[in-house]
C-alpha cells in the first residue's frame, strides 16, 4: 500500500508544481498591475500647479507703519524675470532697467496688504523664495505680533528667512543702490551670510526670533540695518542690535555689547582684536571660539552663571618692531586678548541689566538644569535677572604668527 501511494505522489508531483507556479505568477502579475494603477492615480494630475508667468516671486519684504492709524505698509521686492541676464549687473540688464520692482500697499493687516496688491498687479505674490524680512524700528517699538504671526503661519513663508530691523523706513532699505548684485534683497542676504567672519553682528532667522519671543525667559534680538549716502549713492550698513521684550523693541546693543553677547551665547566665529602694547598695535585674528554657559547652585541655594570660553587665535599683523614670537610677548598678547574678551562681556552684561532683558539665555539654562528652582523664579524673572552674577573663565591660545615670525621692520629688544 505504501509503495502504491509513493507511485501516485510521484505522478502527481509535476501537476502540483505546475499549478503552484501558475498561482505565484498570477499573484505577482496582479500585484504589479495594482501598483501601476496606484502610480497612475498619483501622477495623473497637477491639481496644485502654479505657472511661473502667473507668479510674482518675492525675494525681499519690508514692513513699515502705515500713514493711516492702525495700518501697516507692506513692500515686496519682486523679480523682473525679463530683466535677468546672467553675466550682467542690475544696471546693465537686457534693456537697461532694474532686475526688480518694489511694490507697496497699505492696509490694516499683512494678508489684506498682500491681497490688495492684486488690485494693482496681474500676478500673485509668492513668498517661498523670500530671503529677508525687514521691519522698521518704528513698527518694532509698537507691536510686531501682526507681522510675525502672519509670516509664521503662512505655508509659503520660510522660517529660515533673515529678519532685520531698519533704523529708517524698511521700504527705503529695499531701494538701496546695489552694484555687485542684481537685487538689494540678495545683497542683504549675502551680507548676513558673511557676518560669521567678524563676530560683530547677530544673525537671526524668523524661527530663532519667534522661539525667543515665545520664551518666558529669553529676550529676542535682531540685527539692525540703516541706509547711508555717499558719493550720491545710497548703501546699507549693518549696525547695532535691537533688543525685544514681549514683542516690542526696548533698546539696542552697540558693537562692543553685541560682540559680548556672541561670546556668551557661543555664536562668536572668526574676527579680530586689536591690542595696544608699549611698542605699538598688534592685530590678533580670532580663528575658532567655543563657549559653554551653565548655572551653578551654591550651598546657600543661590544660583549664578558660569561661562567657560576657549579661543584660538593668531597674530595677523605686527605693527611694532618687536619680535612677538618670543614666549614672554606671546603670554602678554594672550593676557590682553583675555582682557578684551572679558571687557566685551562686561559691557554686554551691563547693558542687558539696564534693559532687564535676558538676551543670554540665563533663564533657559536654569530651567533645564534646575527646574524646581526655575518654577519659583520665572514669575519674577525680569526683576531677578539683573542680580544674577556671571563668572567667566577664558582660555586663549595663539596658534600661529602667520607667514612671518619676526616683524618686517627689525628692531626692538634683542
In terms of topology, how is this protein built?
Layout lengths: L1 H42 L11 E11 L6 E8 L20 E8 L2 H7 L7 E3 L5 E5 H4 L4 H9 L8 E5 L3 H4 L10 H10 L12 H9 L6 E10 L2 E13 L2 E6 L1 H10 L6 E6 L4 E17 L5 E16 L8 H29 L6 H8 L1 H7 L3 H4 L5 E11 L14
Parallel strand pairs: 1-4, 1-5, 5-6, 6-7, 12-13
Antiparallel strand pairs: 1-2, 2-3, 7-8, 8-9, 10-11, 11-12
Helix pairs in contact: 8-9, 10-11
Could you state the order of secondary-structure elements as H and E? HEEEHEEHHEHHHEEEHEEEHHHHE
Approximately what portion of the residues adopt beta-strand conformation?
25-35%
For the record, give the distance between the C-alpha atoms at the N and C termini, rounded to a whole number. 116 Å
Unreliable stretches: 87-95
Mean pLDDT: 85
What radius of gyration results from the CA coordinates?
31 Å
Describe what you observe in this structure.
It is found in: Membrane. Residues 240-402 form the Spore germination GerAC-like C-terminal domain. The protein is α/β, with parallel strands linked by helices and 414 residues long. It has 2 domains: 52-80 and 99-253, no CATH class; 255-414, GMP Synthetase, Chain A, domain 3 (2-Layer Sandwich). It contains 12 helices and 13 strands. The chain has helices at 2-43, 110-116, 137-140, 145-153, 170-173, 184-193, 206-214, 255-264, 327-355, 362-369, 371-377, 381-384; strands spanning 55-65, 72-79, 100-107, 124-126, 132-136, 162-166, 221-230, 233-245, 248-253, 271-276, 281-297, 303-318, 390-400. Strands 1, 2, 3, 4, 5, 6, 7, 8 and 9 form a 9-stranded mixed β-sheet that branches. Strands 10-11-12-13 form a 4-stranded mixed β-sheet. The radius of gyration is 31 Å and the shape is globular. The termini are far apart. Residues 87-95 have low confidence and may be disordered.
